[in-house]
Here is the input.
Amino acid sequence: MAPKKGLLQRLNEGVVIGDGGFVFALEKRGYVKAGPWTPEATVENPEAVRQLHREFLRAGADVMQAFTFYASDDKLSNRGNESSKKYTCRGINDAACHLAREVAEEGNGLVAGGLSQTPTYLSGLGKENTQKEFQRQVDVFVENKVDFLIAEYFEHVEEIEWAIEVCLKSGLPVVASMCIGPEGDLHGIPAGECAVKMAKAGAHVVGINCHFDPFVTLEGLKKMKAALDAASIKVHLIAQPLAYLTPDAHKQGFIDLPEFPFALESRICTRWEMHRYAREAYNLGVRYIGGCCGFEPYHIRAVAEELATERGMLPKASEKHEPWAGGLKMHTKPWVRARATRNYWETLKPSSGRPYCSSMSKPDNWGVTAGDSILKQKTEATSEAEISQLRTKAKTVNGV
Here is the structure.
């Protein structure tokens, strides 16, 4: 048997499809607590995590990303879930790697170990302390022989540069992905400059994940690609956006939307919008194409079906799904059979079913990540005037 191709070889030869959003998917299924968003489900409910991996693999994902989001010890110590405080970064990440590897070996999948931004950085405790949190995670990933590392969900390019530095010591390929939009990071560094900084720090793949929908994310990636081209830097690009439409979100993306996190369902992209996302991402030059919060297996299946020619195959899950609604030709109702066309679904403007609801929202527009003390004061404020003063104070504290 020929050895399994690694991430960079696969990207050089074609396209790699990532998986979807474990945090939101498992929260909806009752295995993750909203707020902390920590992944102790890998220890408490491993079968739930295993099954979600399996569904993404069947849908066409090439990568089984270990469910290690927000699993640094400093984050776990703050998660406010008494029943899970006994779990550590090492225990959770080790279990996550075993689950991801088990499912990856059922197909031709790669296993990725992921780390994300830390409370240590946001608290201003410095590079050395922040990198210690990263190193503890990377040590577990190396012990578990993951195929590559992903530093994702970083709002500040400085912190992800520190993460890349730690990841590179492993000798593994490094993917770096920030949760930013076209405006750039929360210190005001433009998206293009963020890409250049990540690449110069040594990342092999750079891009954007989370916070924004596929099409806003691609606008940010266009800026990244232009800056990388201008600097004559050659790296691969990654896109792993939300499955929620966010045209009205601003710098902090869907977190600013009043529907976050429990009323986002009306914003979910259709599978047909995911076809469009996959094609536009591929045409832009993105070769690592996946999803983040809100992405379910059927979204990844749509990406895989759109790129079937480029990949030379359809996913296993397409056995139950004919491209562009072909299965509807067997429906008993003639008007539903008439919908078995690509044109019908590509041009449809879905309705929300909620009379008198607006099409967009008024975001909170914090624009920066305020410290816990500021957020606590905001929560306790009782008047609009107090809230306005706190917004101004928060922006001043964060150097805006």
Observations:
- The beta strands are 16-17, 63-65, 110-115, 148-154, 174-178, 205-209, 236-240, 288-289.
- Residues 370-400 form one domain.
- Residues 371-382, 393-400 have pLDDT under 50 and may be disordered.
